[in-house]
Write a structure and sequence with these properties.
The protein is an alpha+beta fold. The chain folds into 2 domains: 96 residues, Tumour Suppressor Smad4 (Sandwich), CATH 2.60.200; 69 residues, no CATH class. The protein is 20% helix and 37% strand. The chain is built from 2 helices and 13 strands. α1 runs parallel beside α2.
Length: 175
């Protein structure tokens, strides 16, 4: 899984900071990978930990706190794509992307993806009517084969068929 922090606001707005390694420290200290020069940021303020497809932010007893979506983090908290992470005066948007067969696939914030072997995957979502077409579209955009769709509820079947038909129409119209 690839994790990026995108700067929100200020002169560096839009700058993407890749989160590298299984633990990415943020603070003013020399051990930190991201070192903001602000007195509102502790020496070791927080850590972003990537483990088995899950990304969490862990506050390291910082003086001014770490916030996700305007809520103070007590201990650690799971991060999702689109979350806003605030550290002192700095604010970032969290971007999560998964590599699937060598392609980077950005998924909606409510989707959890787990790879199953080398050539297929499973995902879970809390809002399928909204997310399923987006996931399918991102796979089709990367020209990744979609072999089968399992356990589709009646209404979701229509959503998938609509997305597949639209993709087929676009493909035949572009040739």
């Amino acid at each position: 899984m690839e994790v990026k922090l995108v700067v929100v606001g200020g002169r560096h707005a839009g700058k993407e900071i890749p989160v590298t390694g299984p633990q990415f420290l943020i603070g003013r200290g020399e051990r930190c990978q991201l070192r903001p020069q602000s007195d509102m940021v502790s020496r070791e303020h927080c850590a972003i930990v990537v483990e088995e497809g899950t990304v969490v932010v862990r506050d390291l007893n910082s003086r001014n706190g770490t916030f996700v979506n305007q809520q103070r983090v007590e201990g650690s908290r799971k991060l999702h794509s689109g979350d806003r992470l605030k550290i002192g005066p700095l604010e970032f948007e969290v971007r999560l992307a998964t590599r699937l067969n060598g392609f980077e696939v950005s998924l909606p914030p409510t989707v959890k993806l787990t790879t199953q072997g080398v050539d297929w995957f499973r995902y879970q979502t809390s809002s399928p009517l909204q997310d399923n077409p987006l996931v399918l579209r991102s796979l089709l955009d990367k020209q990744l084969p979609v072999i089968g769709l399992y356990e589709i509820a009646g209404s979701l079947e229509q959503v998938y068929m609509h997305a597949i038909n639209n993709a087929a129409e676009q493909e035949s119209g572009s040739r």
